[in-house]
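Readers of this paper often ask what the protein records in our data store actually look like. The remainder of this section carries one protein's record, kept here as part of the documentation.

:::
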Amino acid sequence: MSEGLERTTVIVPTFNRSGFLLESLQSLFAQTLPPAEIIVADDGSTDDTPEQMAKLGDRIRYVRKTNTGKSDTLNQCIRLARHPLIWIMDDDDIAQPKGLEAMTRALSGRPEVGFAYGRYKRFSVDPATGRRRIWNCGHWSDVEDDLFFRSNLMDFFAHHPGLLVRREAYESLIPFSKTYGRSEDYEMLIRLADRFDCRKTDEIIFHQRQHDGRRFGNLDGAKRMQRWIDEQTDMFRAVRINLPLASYLPRQDRDAPLKALRLREALIIRGVVMARKKLWSEAFEDLLASCSIADAQAPLSSSERSTIRLFLFSKYGSPEILSDQTVGQGLRNLAGKGPVGREIGQVIARSLVWFIRKELQTGRLDRSWKLTTVALSLLGRSRTTQ
């Protein structure tokens, strides 16, 4: 039964993807809880998108505009939305039938909650056979709702098609940034999750299409990945400046005085976040500061140790362990920074075992030995401070 559930406006930004777009729209038409409104926002397509959308009549609200980019398109369409919930769907992804209903029920009766989110899978289509292959997503964080913000800082894992957001929440935060052309959704979600509570559902909300070859202009895979890394590094440099340190703690702990062990934990979390975004200098600055708090020299908590284990596990990899001498020196300096630094060094050294084993399994013995040397140097440095 859907009586009493709030209604949703779906926004589908699109540009020159009429074939994929039709598939995506069909998945929206098939929802067990039908959207109240579907806005197709055409950012100046030059293919047959206008003709294809005309065939759908009043099943959609077609908005055609000059090409100004996805961020500007979203900013305009949020203001056009007529209903209290907003679901942004990518034009090449496929919504699962119960997706909207699951997220709507997660929000139902909880006006204080700003957004709901759910899981996704990935898929690709063989162009020769039309055969579809589906597999699980990577980098998913299965966390309690009050830890979503911290996990989202570590990795971007909840994407637009898996989010149902209250319109008033978006209205309080727009515009979407035009500075980060590949990460405008991540930048918005950081602000959204910082401001509002969330609720998760374990339902698979959508299938995310994976494209062979080139997806963004003429960039090949390696260059595209580097663009993502560079953009997120710039973005998190700004996040570190603008986001209060207390925001890195669970929401219920933010208002208490930030000192002693709470200050140490916040610095450790921020330091690990910065390391995962390749901001090594900022990461070591925070972790060294966490070692220097006079009244916070107690052994690391289990939560702190769990956070530190994530230090080197960026989804973009951490080749800088070997390729950047300043990173290696930073690790050694950290391991020699008193009892807290010693513990941090030990945790990082033990986490290197995963990388060492991986290199051995792939036959890269030289890299395996170099990583072993790094781990031993951290453990040795730790012993000299005992």
Notes: Confidence is low (pLDDT under 50) at residues 213-218. The chain is about 45% helix and 15% strand.
